[in-house]
Amino acid sequence: MWKRLFNTTKGNDSQTDKDIFSHLEPDKLPAHVAIIMDGNGRWAKGQGLVRTAGHRAGVSTLKQIVKSCSDLNIEALTVYAFSTENWKRPPAEVEFLMALFSEFMDKEIEEMVRDNVCLRFIGRINELSKVLQDKIANAVERTRSNTGVKFTIAVNYGGKDELIRAIQTISSKVSGGELDAASIDDSIVDSHLDTAGLPPVDFVIRTSGDIRLSNFLLWQTAYAEFWFTSTNWPDFTPECFAEALYDFSQRERRFGGLKEKK
Ligand code: IPE
Ligand code: IPE
Ligand code: MG
Question: Catalytic: which of 17, 38, 202, 235?
Answer without folding.
Answer: 38
